[in-house]
Fold these 4 entries.
Entry 1:
Amino acid sequence: MNAWMEEMGASQETDTLLQSIFANISDAVLVVDHSGTIVTVNAAMERMSGWSKEELVGSKHICEICLGMATCQEESTCTDCFFKRTQMPSFEMRVRTKDGREYPVAASSTRLPEGADGKMVMILRDMTMQLRAEKERYQHKLTNFVIQAQEEERKRISRELHDGVGQALYSILVGLNVLGQGKLSGPMKQHVTEIQQMTAKAMEEVKRMALELRPSALDDLGLLPALRSLIKRVEKSFGLSVDLHVQGEWQRYSAPVETALYRIVQEAMTNTAKYAQAHTLGIIFEAREKELVVTIVDDGVGFDVELAENKGSGLGLFGMKERAQLLKGSVDIRSVIGEGTTVIVRIPVAKGEAEDGHSSLDRG
Ligand SMILES: Nc1ncnc2c1ncn2[C@@H]1O[C@H](COP(=O)(O)OP(=O)(O)OP(=O)(O)O)[C@@H](O)[C@H]1O
Ligand SMILES: [Mg+2]
C-alpha cells in the first residue's frame, strides 16, 4: 500500500469517527449557513427540539428556534446576537421546541473557517435539570434563612414582651396593691380593684403571647417540657384531650431539631383544634438509633390532603414539610374522611447529636 492509499484510509477512518461522534453525542449540534438557515442537525437536536431533521434542514431559520440569549449584561437579548460574532465560546440561550415549550441551554457558536461559506456550528446542552436543581437549592437556602430569621425575631419579641411590658405591668400591679391598702373612699376602692383586675388580666395575656411566640422553656428545658406546657394550654382552650407518650431514651437535641419539632407539633395540634372536631389527640415521640419519629394522631373528621395541599389556602402543611426537609427529614400526612388524621414526622439524627448539637439557637 502506497503512502497516498494509507492517507486515504486514515482520513476515511477519521470521517467515520467524526460522523459517529456527530450522530451519538448527547449535546445537540446544528450548522447554519451565512443567512441563518439550518443546514444540518444531529439526532440530539431532533430530540431536544421535537422537530425532525427534515422539518429543520433547509426550512427553519435559527431565529425560529432561538428565543433569545442571555449575556452577563442582559437576561434576554438579541442585540448582541451570537450570529453576528465569529465565535462565542459560552452563552445561555432559550430554545423553542415544536410543541411550544422553552428549553434553557448552555450554548457555544463558532463560524467555520474560509471555504465553508460562512457556515456556523452551534453546540447546545440542555440545562433544565441543572437549573431546576439550582432553583431548588436556592429556595431551600431562602426558606432556611426565613425560618431562622422568624425564630430569632419571635424570640426577641417574646423576651421584650416578657421582660419589658410584662415587668412594667407587674410594677403597676404592685403600685395598685399599695394604693388599695391605703385609706380610700368606697367608690375609689372599687375603682382600684377593677384596675388591679384589668392589669392582672393584661399581664396574663402578655405572658400567653410571649409563650406562644417562643416559649423560653424550649431553649432552657428542651422540647418535651415546652410541649407539655403547650399541651396544657391547648387542652384548656379547646377542650381537647391530649395523650403524650415517649418511647426510647429521649434527650436534648440540637436547637434546630428541637425548634422544628416544636413548630411542627404545634401546627399539627393547632390544625386538629381548629378543623378536626376531634375528642382526643395522641402524640408519640420515638427516639430511634438514627432518627426521631413523632406521630400525631387525631380522631377527627379527616380531610383530603392532596386537595388541601394543591389548594394551598394555608401555609401550615407546607411549613411543616419545609421545616422537616431542611433537616433532611420528612412529614407524611395521612387522613381518612370521618376517621381522623395522622401526621408522621421523621428527623434523622447523628450519634452524639444530643450532646454537642444543642445550643446554636441558644447562643443566638
Ligand atoms: N387535622 C386536621 N383535620 C381536619 N382538617 C385538617 C387538619 N389539618 C389540616 N386540615 C385541613 O387542611 C387545610 C390546610 O391546612 P394548613 O395548616 O396548611 O392551613 P390553615 O391551617 O388553613 O392555615 P395556616 O396554617 O396557614 O394558618 C386546612 O384548612 C384544613 O381544611
Ligand atoms: Mg394550619
Note: The longest strand covers residues 87-96.
Entry 2:
Amino acid sequence: MNGDIRTALYVVNRYWSTHWRQYFPGYHYPPYVLGAYGGGIRSAPFCGNRRVSYDNAVYCPYGHYIAWDITLMADGYRSGDAWVYLIIAHEWAHAVQNRIPARYVLRAKELQADCLAGAALFGAAADDTLLFEDGDIAELRAALRRLADDTPWTDSGDHGNARQRVNAFTRGANHGVYGCLP
Ligand SMILES: [Zn+2]
C-alpha cells in the first residue's frame, strides 16, 4: 500500500505540475504531504485550531497540507489499490481549488474535487505516467459509492450521493479539467 501511495502522490503531482498553465494562471504549488496519522502512527494533526477527524482524509488550507488516517487507507485498500489513488487525487484537488481564482470554484466543492480527481488520474493515464489495470475503473466507482453521502448534494459541505459522485468523477475522466470548471 505504501508503494501505491507514493506512486499516487508522484502521479498526481506530476499531472498538475505539467498541466497547470493550460488551465490556470500562476503555477502549481503542491500541497505539503503530511501523510498518515492514526493507527498508532501519530495523533490526528491540527488544521487551524481544530484537530482533523479520524477515519478521514483531509486537505487543510492552513498549512496547505494533505493527510489521511492510515486506517481509512488500509480499509479501502483491501478492496483494491485504486482506493488510495482516488483519496489522494481528491484531497490534492482541494489544494488545487484553494490556489485557483475563486470564479473557478464551484459551490459543490466536493463534487468538483471528484471531477478534478478524475481529470488528474485519466490525464495522467493519457500522459503515460499512470497505467490503469483491469478492474481499476470498477474499483474507482465502488470507492466513490462507498465514500458517498446517503443524500443528494444540497449544501457546499456535502459530498453528494453515490450517483452524483460517480457522475462527477466520470465527467472529469471524460472531459478533463475544463469539464470540471464553471
Ligand atoms: Zn473532499
Note: The mean pLDDT is 95.
Entry 3:
Amino acid sequence: MHESAIATSILDLVLHALPAPRQRITKITFVAGVLAGIEPSCLEVYFSELAKETAAENAELILKYTDAEFVCQTCGYRELFEGRGRVKIECERCGGLNRLQGGSEMYIEQIEVEQ
Ligand SMILES: [Zn+2]
C-alpha cells in the first residue's frame, strides 16, 4: 500500500535527521502534491503505528498539499488545478494544448524536536 511505504520513508528520514539520538521528534511537516494521491488519515494511522517505540513516537504529522497547474503550450497561460474536477486538456484562453505541471512532489518541510 502506497501510504505505508510513504510513512516508512518519512520515519526513516526523520530518524536519520535527528542531531542527537536521544532527542524526541514532536512535529513533522510533510508536503505532498495533490496528484500524489495520499489519503491523510491513512498516512497518519500508518505513521503513528510505525513510530511506536522510536524517537518519533507521538509526533504530530502535519500534511500540507501543494497544487498542480495547467500550463498552455501555446500561450503560456497558467491555471491552478487542485486535484479535483475535470482535467482541462485545452487552454481556456487560446484553445492550445495544456500540460499538467507539478502536484506530484513529496518532501519533508520541517522537523521539530524537543528542546
Ligand atoms: Zn493558451
Note: The beta strands are 25-33, 60-66, 68-72, 78-81, 98-101, 106-113.
Entry 4:
Amino acid sequence: MRRLSPAGRKALLTAHLVTSLGWLGADLGLLALGVAGLRGADPEVVYPAAALLVTWLFAPLSVAVWLIGVASALLTPWGLLRWRWVLVKFALTTVMLGLVLLLLTPRVRHLGALAGAADAHLRIDLVVPPAVSTTLLLVATVLSTWKPWGRLRPPARRSVPAGRAG
Ligand code: HEM
C-alpha cells in the first residue's frame, strides 16, 4: 500500500480527528435532546430537532468516520490488521455504523415525525442508544491515545536480496 507524505499524513489525521470527535459531539447532542425529552421539554421541538441532527450530521459523520478511519490505517504504517488497538476500533466503528444506519436513524426520524404523539417507549430510543454509543466512542478515544495491547503478529522481516546476506 502506498504511504503518504508527512503533510498528507497530517491532513488525514486532522480529518480523522475532526470527524471522529465531531461524531462524539453529535452523539452527546442527541443524548442531551433525549434526556430533555424525557424530562418534559417540548416534544414538538426536541424530537424534530433530533431527527434533523441524526439525518444531517450524525449519520453522515458515521460514514465519514469509517471511511477516513480505514484510510488512516491503510495509508500509514499502522495498517488495519497489525495492531490490536486499531483492529478493536475498526470493529467498534463498523458495528456502530451498522446500528446507526439500520436502527438508530430510522427510529429517530420516526420519533421526529411523531413528536408530541411519541410514547415513553419510543422516547427511550433517544436516550439509551446514544448513551451506549457515547460510551463506545469514549472507549475508542482512549484506545487511540493509549494504544494498548501491542501487535497482532510480529512485523514481517524484510527479505535480504540474494548475494547481500551476511
Ligand atoms: C474505522 C475506524 C477507525 C480506524 C481504522 C482508526 C484508525 C486510526 C489510526 C490508524 C490512527 C493513527 C493515525 C496516524 O498516526 O496518522 C488513529 C488515530 C486516532 N483516532 Fe482513530 N480510527 C478509527 C475510528 C476512530 C474513532 C471512532 C475515534 C474516536 C471517537 C478515533 C480517535 C482517534 C484519535 C483521537 C486518534 C489520534 C491518536 C494519536 O495521534 O495519538 N478513531 N485512528
Note: Confidence is low (pLDDT under 50) at residues 159-166.
